[in-house]
Amino acid sequence: MEKKFKSGFVSVIGRPNVGKSTLINQLLGERITIISSKPQTTRNSIRCIYTDEHSQIIFIDTPGIHKPKHKLGEYMVNAATDSLKGVDVVIAVIDASLEITKADMEIIDVAREVESPVILVLNKVDKIDKSKLEILLTKFSTDESHFDSLIPVSAKEGTNTEAVLDEIVKRLPEGPLYFPADITTDVTERFVVSEFIREKILELTSDEVPHGTAVEIDSMKEREGGGMMDIEANIYCEKDSHKGIIIGKQGKMLKEIGSRARVDLENLLDCKVNLQLWVKVRKNWRDNNSILRNLGYK
Q: How far apart are CA 214 and CA 212, in angstroms?
């Protein structure tokens, strides 16, 4: 008997830095969303699309739910909570390697309020011993938890992530192919390019600087004959001191950011990349509605 094709939308929620983007990249088998050890790396709700012979899953990678300190933070939290509307499945991700916090429980409460099936994923189990995992599994397996499924995984190592896919597909309705089978995200190429550059800033600069930075692609032009893409991008920061850190002594930091980003961009675009970066100060841009709109935070 021929299998019916199943499809639907899956929102992935959790507090900052629990591994939501790492999990989605692992499930897709390729890197679409940027990852970092820094909290609040993801700022937008991004659709990432997994398609196989029998199903299509549209994952919505969301910003971490937290207490916002500025308008950008408010946008991020709203993007995360709005992603729960009308989805077929919700995945709530918890970092099993840390103590369960009040923020974790608040997110679990948010997930419980939706009518869609909820899968609780305990991530980073590679960092804990068996006894702690058993305690967590017992804690969240009680009748009061009301989860449709509970799955321990290591998104970084790829451990047990196939079980997450299986549980999602089990709960999806029969449906159409929403996107062409070869599409893995619905965001623009420019957006992905800007995110890959921002990822390198997160990797290389101090804890304070990354949250106050944004990347805007000024131009992307393929040269005649193909084989080379010219990209010009602005890096915005909030303070003159941050600009100095990003540029670095004799421009070394900016050069390293550009060099690392270029490697990823050439893999993404499948051509050589000439990347030009400029650093500009936009004081308090995270509280400026006009600048936020221009940067795509609408």
A: 7
Q: What is the pLDDT of residue 161?
A: 94
Token pair, residue 144, equals 């009061």
pLDDT tens sequence across 31-73: 665 444 444 444 456 788 899 999 999 898 765 544 545 555 5
Residue 200 shares a structural domain with residue 150: no
For 254, the token pair is: 């900016």
* Residue 50, strand partner residues: 57
79: its two tokens: 């993007």
Q: Bridge-partner residues for 167, per DSSP?
A: none
Note whether 58 and 32 are within 8 A (CB). Answer: no
User: Residues 118-149: pLDDT tens digits?
Assistant: 999 999 999 999 999 999 988 888 755 678 89
Q: How far apart are CA 201 and CA 215, in angstroms?
A: 10
pLDDT digits (tens, 9 = 90+) for 192-214: 888 889 889 988 887 667 677 88
Burial of 118 (0-12, 13-18, 19+ CB in 10 A): buried
* Sign of the dihedral defined by the CA atoms of residues 187, 116, 56, 6, in that order: negative
pTM: 0.69
- How remote is the C-alpha of 290 from its chain's centroid? 24
- Please indicate, yes or no, if residue 216 is contained in any of the structural domains: yes
9 phi/psi in degrees, rounded to 5? -110, 135
**Judgement on whether residues 202 and 167 belong to the same structural domain of the protein:** no
Residues pairing with 91 in the sheet:
12, 119
Question: Is 16 within a domain?
Answer: yes
DSSP-based three-state secondary structure for 175: coil
Number of folded domains that form the chain: 2
